[in-house]
Automatic annotation (TrEMBL):
Residues the record lists as binding substrate: 9-11, 170, 209, 230-231
Residues annotated as catalytic: 94, 164
Lineage of source species: Bacteria, Pseudomonadati, Pseudomonadota, Alphaproteobacteria, Rhodobacterales
GO function terms (MF aspect): triose-phosphate isomerase activity
Annotated source species: Aliishimia ponticola
Family stated for the protein in its record: Belongs to the triosephosphate isomerase family.
Pathway field: Carbohydrate biosynthesis; gluconeogenesis; Carbohydrate degradation; glycolysis; D-glyceraldehyde 3-phosphate from glycerone phosphate: step 1/1; Carbohydrate metabolism; erythritol degradation
Alphabetical list of SUPFAM superfamilies matching this protein: Triosephosphate isomerase (TIM)
Protein name: Triosephosphate isomerase
Keywords: Cytoplasm, Gluconeogenesis, Glycolysis, Isomerase
């Protein structure tokens, strides 16, 4: 059975005072072995978040890393630096990075490789635009992104795939359960075709306007192993019921 994962991406939100949400979250939930809980705060908070999360059962992840181990890349952060803060995961290829920073599949693949080299779990994001969905190209687009963004050394331990339809991010719009099932079943088949048993065991998260009131429905899909949550992960009072819904699924 795959271990579920509730991952919160704080994006460019949060100051040191926001770390009180970690303790509040730990208090609001009953941790279990079947469900991992991850918070990805902005980079300046990684070390303090890792310290604050000790003993809570919450893991800490970054939102991006560079594909090279080190070098003259002003403002960038390497996977080793992230691991050095105590973080264990890193999101790569989020659509906001793909769009604003022009990251393509090859660059995302390089970032995932860099993460693996530092024993970080890479959460590789893929997702279609609204125009691609309307044109009926969703499954092909996603298959291409998955193939191009996922390195050959991906395993169930070092890689998580997050499907985030771009039109659902921060919009309050969510695909139907049937649409989510269709995509996740398709991605599972692609992962199994490429990675065999590892592909069967790799976690597949859904992301895009997951909220306390829609989480239980989304988690009904067999191949949804958790969620990558943006806005609703900022407050423990919103994220805790999503985690509880995942545990109950
Ligand atoms: O990384 C998280 C996603 O982009 C989803 O964000 P959202 O839950 O605010 O729609």
């Amino acid at each position: 059975m795959r271990r579920k994962l509730a991952a919160g991406n704080w994006k460019m939100n949060g100051l040191a005072a926001s770390l009180k949400e970690l303790a509040a979250l730990a208090q609001a939930i009953t941790a279990d072995d079947q469900t991992g809980i991850l918070i990805c705060p902005p980079a300046p908070l990684l070390y303090r978040a890792s310290e604050a999360a000790k003993g809570t059962g919450i893991s800490i992840g970054a939102q991006d890393c560079h594909g090279d181990a080190d070098g003259a890349y002003t403002g960038d952060i390497s996977a080793a630096m992230i691991a050095d803060t105590g973080a264990t995961h890193v999101i790569v290829g989020h659509s906001e990075r793909r769009e604003a920073h022009h990251e393509d599949d090859a660059e995302v693949r390089g970032k995932a490789r860099a993460a693996h080299a530092c024993d970080l779990t890479a959460i590789i994001c893929i997702g279609e635009t609204e125009a691609e969905r309307e044109a009926g190209n969703t499954l092909d687009i996603l298959a291409g992104q998955l193939a191009g963004s996922c390195p050959d050394n991906a395993t169930a331990a070092n890689t998580v795939i997050a499907y985030e339809p771009i039109w659902a991010i921060g919009t309050g719009r969510v695909p139907t359960l049937e649409q989510i099932v269709e995509v996740h079943d398709h991605l599972r088949a692609k992962l199994i075709a490429r990675f065999g048993d590892e592909g069967h065991a790799m976690r597949l998260l859904y992301g895009g306007s997951v909220k306390p009131d829609n989480a239980a429905t989304i988690f009904k899909a067999d191949n949804v192993d958790g969620a990558l949550v943006g806005g609703a992960s900022l407050k423990a009072t919103d994220f805790a019921p999503i985690i509880t819904a995942l545990q109950a699924s």
